Amino acid sequence: MSLDKELDSVESLLQKLPEKDLKQVWRILYGDGVRDLELSEKCLKLVTRYKMELVKCKFSYKEEQLRPPRLVRVALFQQKVPVPLTFPIYKVKTEMYTLAMDAVKIAAKGGANIFCFQQAWNMPYAFCSGESMPWSEYAEKAEEGATTRILQTLALENNMVIISTILERDENFEERIWNTAVVIDNHGIVLGKHQRNHVPKVECSNEPTYYCEGNTGHPVFETEFGKIGINICYERHYPLNWLGLALNGAEIVFNPCGAIGQEAELLWTVEARNAAVANGYYVCAINRIGMEIYEHEYEDEQGNLVHHEDSGLFFGSSFVSAPNGSRSPGLSRTKTGVLIAEFDLNLCRQVKDRKGLELMHRLPLYRDLLSKITATNFKPQVIKKHCQCQTT
Amino acid sequence: MSLDKELDSVESLLQKLPEKDLKQVWRILYGDGVRDLELSEKCLKLVTRYKMELVKCKFSYKEEQLRPPRLVRVALFQQKVPVPLTFPIYKVKTEMYTLAMDAVKIAAKGGANIFCFQQAWNMPYAFCSGESMPWSEYAEKAEEGATTRILQTLALENNMVIISTILERDENFEERIWNTAVVIDNHGIVLGKHQRNHVPKVECSNEPTYYCEGNTGHPVFETEFGKIGINICYERHYPLNWLGLALNGAEIVFNPCGAIGQEAELLWTVEARNAAVANGYYVCAINRIGMEIYEHEYEDEQGNLVHHEDSGLFFGSSFVSAPNGSRSPGLSRTKTGVLIAEFDLNLCRQVKDRKGLELMHRLPLYRDLLSKITATNFKPQVIKKHCQCQTT
């Protein structure tokens, strides 16, 4: 069955179930921890004016006796490149900036404290094309590039932390390119950056052609709105990468993506939610939308030998998962939009205390296992009977 | 919203969607890699005679040029204790053995090569009760206990590997109790055992009261039907435990459980499927069903201070996930039943080669991270600006 390019979302189809059945299905698939979030008229008007989709929700929370709730609002922005990829780079970027400004305004009027873009948000996701030019030209300095400078202004004006994942060009070090998340705090200051650790070399997307494996570890950025980490796109497939951010204390992990294909869509909510519950933090997963047309043919993600002239469909569906596994509804599979979600960071510790996963983590066991595995003389722990054939 | 004790399964509710919508929802939630599996008339007659539920399916596979398909059939058995818990231990066990023999016969006629029970299958799952007696009396020797001996006969007669998770009593070592999976090969020989690594100390279930943390590592058992590992119940919450089995070469991991509660149900398919795709193996998740009534009150898993006199509802829903994320339909939430699934072990390597996750795993990075984390002077990698308040 081919991907349905028209399908809005699973959620929209489930609405066709009888109410009682929908309630049951929703409880098991989405949890029942999410309610509607009221937003200002001004915010809703902007949504209409800018013709964006809006999903809004708040996660339930329990009050503690000694800590007040630490409520945070996040805004996730999913978008497509609004002009053909053959347009000049300057023109494409300008269009992306305009869209970004609209989305940030909506988020600000919606009271968002942290805003996160999809991966490589200010450019086409052209790593499937196999071409170097013009795509590499989109790379910019992380700390002083045009994109970062524009966002610093927006962050300061709107008192909002902004996470911007771009291609980074390091002019001081071999002109290298990295896939980098820049974290700008709500005072407009670049707090730091994370260079993506895991880079796919898969059939459709040989990304080491474009940029290097990062060596910034698993940094957690302490902001006024909580401790945040970033897991960039393909890194979502690595439980160890998610774990690294947890061990450094993340309370929210943003996962900006550019994901296509049936298999990726099948796993879209599985991986992010598993990360949230295994690590006791919120996960905000953002995916781009639309289909990008390249000049050259390329091989698709499913390993089929059929060639296409497009990226495949980025399936959107951006959403938030809480550390207890409850999830928000998603943005659609097809529309540019903003998801605004409110939640209490205190839930992270509450879930940890209740489930006790950390108490039984036995990290030294795994430290030793990984030490053995990475030694040159490693032999796996396999139990077998010799000469089984003679035993009957 | 309280758990609906009557609800058969999510799958049964989704069937109420219009056919075209169901197809779309199914593709995104379950994948489209599973077809019906034809079984013999003899098998189906036994299912009717023994009044069991049957779910049967086969996973799609791709032929390779140099390796023939390595098709394996697994049978997962979910059950409830068929008599009141106040019955004498001998009586309860006898009833469980009878049920097991029925299920093994069905599996054998269905051509199953590997049969797996739920956790602590030959006893009530009474670890929530807080009482020591009579539950500890259910513990047996792993290699020479009555349960293992009965299963050795069944395994030999039916040419079937059997995985039996029981409470193990080690009479030679402090009379200790372990939560142990015994692996019996298809010649009736005890291939070995795995003692559960992670033991929950959560509100409703303080299981270290009953048994010890295991130290058998992450063994993989090489059988004639593939290399198998066992992840017991609560271990499913630990990505590192799943990883350990992958690093030792597992192609199928069985996850026998006794799981209750809304939160566990919300995560039931998330955790097992994430493990399958992150590690490139099949996961067979088995959960018990029914409600077990204890004499004493206890505190429930949700952290509510309400006391009950029962275990809560074990929600069944046993299922299989392939390494590409496609999943089988589940057994129901409420009925004793057998799931028979056929799949090709070659898919494990195919998925690894296609996705390339292992190529980019960077295990030394995580070895070093865990070494740092477990050192006494560990400081998390946190980036923050000092005196942020003065920067505006």
Automatic annotation (TrEMBL), chains A, B:
Gene3D superfamilies associated with the record: Carbon-nitrogen hydrolase
One GO molecular-function entry: beta-ureidopropionase activity
Family annotation (PANTHER family): BETA-UREIDOPROPIONASE (PTHR43674:SF2), NITRILASE C965.09-RELATED (PTHR43674)
Keywords: Hydrolase
Domain CN hydrolase positions: 72-345
GO BP term, pick one: beta-alanine biosynthetic process via 3-ureidopropionate
Protein name as annotated: CN hydrolase domain-containing protein
